[in-house]
Amino acid sequence: MGLKIKKRGTKWYVYVNYHGRRKNRCVGTREAAEKVRREIEARLALGDQTFLQDDGRPDPLFKNFAEGWLETYAEVECKPSTKRSYEQLLRVHVTPRFGNKKLTDIRRDEIKQFLSELSQTTHDVDGTIVPKYAKNTLRLVVCALRTVLNAAVEDGWIESNPASRVGRFAKSEKPARQASAMTRDEVEKFLVGVQEICPDWHPFFLTALRAGLRKGELIALKWGDIQFGERENDANRYILVQRNYSHGRFTSPKSKKSRRVDLSKQLRAVLLELRDSRLLTAMMAGKTSIADDLVFPSQAGTAMKPDNIVPRYMEPALEKAGLRRFRFHDLRHTFGSLLIQDGASLAYVKDQMGHSSIQITVDTYGHLIPGADIAWVDRLDSKTTVHQSAPQTHQKESDREEETAQVIEKIWLPPRDSNPDMLIQSQLSCR
Questions:
Q1: DSSP 8-state symbol, 301
Q2: N or C of the chain: less Cβ packing under 10 Å?
Q3: DSSP 115
Q4: Residue 118 — pLDDT band, cuts 50, 70, 90?
């Protein structure tokens, strides 16, 4: 028999496990929970199992609880993209396996068996043995299942989460493709290609390269978010990133925090010219301000479709410039890596990029500066060459040996009345 009290959030619960029959109750304070625990323990010792009888609150099925969690918690607390990911993972993988089981009937060994089945190998079209699902997919499946069951624990339906600490069975491998970035020369060639293929998009791609904004942050950028400063050399010039556009909705940035990104002089001049043009058009239409207008709207004046940017504009510009294929997110990586190559501190790069920790900055951009790293190796060659001047080197070494001998003699030469045995021992210890 197991009787426990636990605090979940601000409430205390009593959990009973009596020969496999489980029940729990929310009883408010710790003192009340202790009192209820003692009473239940005494009743069960006398054979009274009234507490274990059905109280009109049947244990929900996993699928019903998961649907309610998606509609309540995920809808309010998660970003649309995150909620959509949870919904897909649950629908495709988790619910078919655990949907018709009660929350109290889901066991840890069943979850481990479930993961084992997902990680089995299969044969590719050419006969190659490949995993059924990538380990990163397994990690996401475990995350979705664990999150829902955590909510069940907090609501008092189950005592503990059977999916906790099973992540080691689905450790994620490193992605096959690491972040890549353009060199300075490639940046200039790409921008020239943009000017030739789609000149109206030059400010958009320049902002991506000079400010490192994500695609959704660029789409959601408004003129009121840009502080131009009074003049070109004014240090008070920046972009306030406080919005993101994802799945047809405006949301908060990825970290759920706004950030300030410094505005370079070149980008300031380009955006000022674009702003003046837009402001003139707005004034002719009777508007007095464009602060709430999007900086990069679609032709209809609404938020542009993110999926159209790369195939219609970026890829043709890359081809025109004679460059290899880059992802749009690589423009953001270019911003970060060029800052590091110019000597910017990791703390500054972290703030500009909006990373949640400096470790992310190191892990993401540490490999993107091979030119700076190889310079240290080349310096080893130059230092070695200096030491290969034979006559001078041998002369210097001879001088050092003579100086060393003199120092040793001064240190170990004892006074005249010293014990000769001690002198011999001291000289031997020097050798």
A1: S
A2: C
A3: H
A4: confident
Contacts of 8 (CB under 8 A, 6+ apart): 153, 154, 155, 156
Q: What is the DSSP letter of 223?
A: G
Closest by CA to 162, choosing from 118, 120, 119, 101, is 101
pTM value is 0.62
Give 190-203 pLDDT, tens digit per residue: 999 999 999 999 99
Helix%, strand%, coil% for the chain, nearest 5: 55, 10, 30
CA 119 remoteness from chain centre: 25
Query: Token pair for residue 394?
Result: 């041998």
CA dist list (Å): 277 to 170, 270, 427: 54, 11, 88
Cβ–Cβ under 8 Å, residues 277 and 295: no
Contacts of 177 (CB under 8 A, 6+ apart): none
Residue 364: CB atoms within 10 A of its CB come to: 18
- In which element (H, E) is residue 81 found? helix 80-89
State the Cα–Cα distance between residues 260 and 217, nearest whole angstrom.
Answer: 12
- Separation between Cα atoms, residue 423 and residue 100, nearest integer Å: 91
User: Is residue 107 within 8 Å of residue 162, measured between CB atoms?
Assistant: yes
Summarised one tens digit per residue, pLDDT across range 368-407 is 554 555 566 666 776 555 544 445 545 555 555 555 445 4
Residue 123: phi, psi to the nearest 5?
-100, 130
Q: For residue 25, give every residue at least 6 positions away whose Cβ sits within 8 Å of its Cβ, in sequence order, or none.
A: 13, 14, 36, 156
Q: Which helix (H) or strand (E) holds 184?
A: helix 184-197
CA 290, CA 288: separation in Å to the nearest integer? 7
Total number of residues shown for the chain: 431
d(CA 346, CA 339): 9
